[in-house]
Design goal:
Elements (H helix, E strand, L loop, with lengths): L9 E7 L5 H14 L7 E7 L6 H10 L3 E4 L1 H4 L11 H7 L4 H14 L3 E10 L2 E8 L1
Parallel strand pairs: 1-2, 2-3
Antiparallel strand pairs: 1-5, 4-5
Length: 137
């Protein structure tokens, strides 16, 4: 394998509307990775909010990519509010969290690496989904 220190290990945070198809989620992921010259192989895991734990599109994406999907409660995601690039009042009213994709990405990156994470790619919106990438330094 080539020098991995140059390439971050990424966590994908995802938010989506109920019934969002896996094709939409995959298109958003592929688009974001391509735009930032990143590879799917750099993605370590997927994260979302526990309200989406049984969302078919998210489960199918995790299966397609052969990656774990970790879901956090809104109370676990709330501490990240001040670190978000975008705080949505609508998201807060629906989920108790100001931004699912960014919060979940940061929460999982920090959980996996036990150190502060940062947003690598802030919230990207596409059709019925949002996506953010976080990495640990």
């Amino acid at each position: 394998m080539s020098d991995s220190s140059a390439a971050p290990t990424l966590v994908v945070g995802l938010g989506c509307q109920k019934g969002c198809p896996v094709t939409t989620l995959r298109a958003l992921l592929d688009q974001v990775l391509a735009a930032h010259q990143l590879q799917t192989a750099q993605v370590l895991a997927l994260a979302s909010i526990d309200l989406k734990r049984n969302e078919p599109g998210l489960l199918q994406l995790a299966e397609q990519l052969e990656l774990p999907l970790t879901c956090f409660s809104s109370s676990q995601l709330a501490p990240y509010a001040l670190r978000l690039s975008h705080r949505s009042q609508i998201a807060f009213e629906r989920t108790g969290c100001y931004g699912v994709a960014e919060s979940a990405a940061l929460a999982l990156a920090e959980h996996l690496h036990q150190q502060p994470a940062r947003l690598w790619v802030p919230r990207q919106k596409y059709a019925q989904a949002t996506l953010a990438l976080a990495a640990c330094r």
